[in-house]
Amino acid sequence: MRILLPILILSCVSVLFSHDVFGQRKKKLRPSRNFTIEAIAPNVWVAIHNEYFGKAICNAGIIDLGDKTVIFDPFMTPSAAVELRDIARKLTRRNYAYVVNSHYHNDHIRGNQVFLPNATIVTTTTTRDQIERNEPGEQEWEKKHAPTLLAAVRKRMVNANETERAELPYWVGYYEGILESSDQLFTALADQIFDDSMWIEGNQLSVKIVECKNGHTVSDAVLLIPKLGIAFMGDLLCADRHPWISDGDVDGWRQHLKVFYEDKLYTTYLPGHGKVSGKPALKILYDYLGDVKRMCDEARTDSAQAELMNKPIPDEYKSWFCGRFYQPNLQYLINVAKAKRQASIRNGKKEGQR
Ligand SMILES: [Zn+2]
Hints:
Blueprint: H1 4-16, E1 17-19, E2 25-27, E3 35-41, E4 44-49, E5 60-64, E6 69-72, H2 78-92, E7 98-100, H3 106-109, E8 120-124, H4 125-158, H5 162-181, E9 192-194, E10 197-201, E11 206-213, E12 219-225, E13 230-238, H6 250-262, E14 268-273, H7 280-298, H8 302-310, H9 326-353
Parallel strand pairs: 6-7, 7-8, 8-9, 13-14
Antiparallel strand pairs: 1-2, 3-4, 4-5, 5-6, 10-11, 11-12, 12-13
Helix pairs in contact: 4-5, 6-7, 7-9
């Protein structure tokens, strides 16, 4: 017993305090069903959405600047955001000072409300305006239609094939999250807006938030930690999955990815969806966007467009998550290409009349 007692005491201590890869004392955190927390550098943590029925829906970040805490993209549901808030408090031993929204999509912004009144919510001027314009209508639409959509997804699960079995739990989590939060949501708009870029400076670490126009949406903000070579990309980067293109500008988006790919300062990227990635993920998405755009540009007739819509997903992207985005992405790009051709015909006629 004399020998056993010190061993017992030591093992209890190691359960209470373990150390992460950066040698920091890691507090014991209550695990979440909605996301997992990873330390990717000293004082930088990412929260990766659990795609198996989780209700976070997007990835988030926590950065301890030394004297203040920054939260990036606080999820879609207030319930998941509360967990993120409490974990951030435990990890940084203070209240959060800033919450950054990368863009206006519902899955990146609706956790804002749980950080009030302590936090300053930051985003670009355009994103703030988009949230103000879109959210009331979108929330109303979801309230009306989410029950039917959730029932359809659950029904689909009964006879799902292998791919669907992997993906449908994501959509169950999504619609359940929308339903669960619909009565408690309010639109918490940014109280600090910026154009181009802004810094949040701390006494140990500083972050730069940069606006990338005309990418995944008309205005996306990325959060950069230059000292550590880390970039939180929002939905400008999605890893091993089809991104949602139908609100974006593919040429502008590819240009942003190219700039990040060529910038040697950054090597670690948090995508809006998917796992923490290195530089190759930027190139892979750049190629995907180029491939789908080219296919849509080349399908000029109704029959060629119908044929493209019926073709299976190309082999290199077949295993990607969110396969259900592929066809809407094609349809969107076919419509964009069509509109461009019509505009160029109109402009040509005008030129001829001069
Ligand atoms: Zn998005």
